[in-house]
């Protein structure tokens, strides 16, 4: 009788040992809860890990684990999802997505990262090896550069790029026709006499209606505005030349008349 029971036990183990997990065809499945409200409801305190055997704090892991051969150490390649809680001095909770290679987190995207001295809280920030490289703030301002420097996107502007931009083409939109310099050719435009221009440049060391070097250092260069200023000066020069040409032609006529009178 004992041999029969033992044989039956081995048979059951063999049968159920190779069977797959099964779930009901209807209803909800719960892990860590006796009252699931979704098809799959997972409620866990502490770590929630999917994938290889990991124990990183407050992280879920999705990825693969290398096959261990010849005594080599297995490593993980995939993505972590981490929940971060910041201290009371700058409170908040963020979610961080980190890619990993050989168990070392590399590139990341973080949602709701804390504000800094010069920025508001981030809608999303991007970085590498825990160094922020780009941030889009909740006020819509964007900063590209080393976050450790904490450079502020200036007031009145939406984008700041540390160390500059290199591009093959730039197109700057002009808001309205009033922002360009064709007003110089209007009938009521008052062209400053050259004697006044001369006196102005002697006193101020820059052209009228053009920012000084000091103003440029303090306020920076507005490309669209400066191009309009330069065009204003080109158009004014054109008017000066037209006027001088008229005077030259008048002098030529007078000289010709004088020569004819002497003959």
From TrEMBL:
Q: Which domain of life does this protein belong to?
A: Bacteria
What does the UniProt keyword field contain?
Answer: Signal
Q: Where is the signal peptide?
A: 1-19
This protein is called BZIP transcription factor
Q: Which organism is it from?
A: Flavobacterium cerinum
